[in-house]
Each structure stands twice: as structure tokens, then as C-alpha cells.
Amino acid sequence: MEALNLRLFDWLNAPLQAPHLELDLAYTLAIYAIYLVPLLMIVGWLRRDPTRQRLALQALLACVLALGVNEVIALLWQHPRPFVISVGHTYLDHAPNSSFPSDHMTIISTVAITLLLSRDRRRLGVAFAAIALGIAWSRVYLGVHFPLDMLGAVGVSVIVASTVALTADRYLPTLHTLARAIHRRLFGPLIARGWLPE
User: Fold this and answer.
1) Is 125 among the domain residues?
2) In this structure, is residue 3 part of a structural domain?
3) Which parts of the chain span the membrane according to its record (predicted)?
4) What are the Cα distances from residue 41, in Å, to 27, 56, 58, 73, 100?
5) How many domains does the chain have?
6) Would the pLDDT of 90 be above 70?
7) Is 193 a member of any domain?
């Protein structure tokens, strides 16, 4: 398995003289695309639609739980990043922590799967799945992850997002009520002036 991982990495990793256009695209996807996740959650929350608010909360909870699973995996099995074992070419600074599974890929794919499991947000889920593929490529291309780090992240995302979706009816109404109360408490003056929805 590790031999396949290294072979795929060699195929996807940027060459020594990587084209500037490809590097710019990879940087954009690897660094900035992840900010679409909090943006989506904030917009979903502020739309005043309880269904969208609950979906935003569901995605947030799934992401937190999935990242928790990643932490446990990293504690049990430390997998070095490519630059730590002097493999390939690295174009992005990163801490030399465990590479498996990728947190970036876990977050974006957890949101994508949450949206795909929702009846009325599947198109948005497809869009986020496409962004997830771009992030996966970019972080391998820039030399901070192996391909199996991405597959591991998708595996964690599928399990956690599906579990959260299947059990949502049990906790989501209470969580939604609590989140709305906190929202009103924190942003009461802005809500009173009409700057934020209630």
C-alpha cells in the first residue's frame, strides 16, 4: 500500500521547475478554498430559514467530530509528511506533524457529504465535492500530503457525516434552539437595529 502511495505521489507532485500558473492555482486551492466552508455556514445561518440553519449546524457538528477522529488517528499512528522523509518537491510551508488523514480534505469533504445527503442541497454538494478534489490535488501537488492522506480523510468524512445525518432528528432541534438563543444573546443590539436577522 505504501508503495502505491509513493507511486501516486510521484505522479501528482509538482516537478522541480513547476509552471507558475499551476503553482498559483494550487496555492489558491490549498490555502484559500477552505474558507468557503465557514462562509457557507455563516450564509446558511443568516438566511432566517430554519432548514438551512439546521443544515449549517449539522455540517459544523460533523466537521468538529471528524477533526476529532483525525486527532485520535494521528495519536495512534504518526505518518510523516513527504518533506519529512525527503520525498518529492515541496512548495508550501507546513508543520512536520502527521499527514494522515488530511484535515483540509476532511473539512471540505465532510461538508460536501453533508450537502449531498440533504435532499434540496445536492447541487451545492456536488460543487463542494469538486472543490474537495481540487484541494486534494493541490496539497499533494505542493508536496505536503500523500494521496492516501486524502482517501483516509474521505473515509473519515463519509463515516462521520453519515452518522451525524442519520441521528440528526434526535439532536438537531435542541441544538438549533440553543444556537438561536446564543445568537440572540450575543448579537441582540445588532438584531434590534435590523443589521442581523433574528
Assistant:
1) yes
2) no
3) 25-46, 55-78, 98-117, 124-144, 150-168
4) 23, 5, 10, 26, 26
5) 1
6) yes
7) no
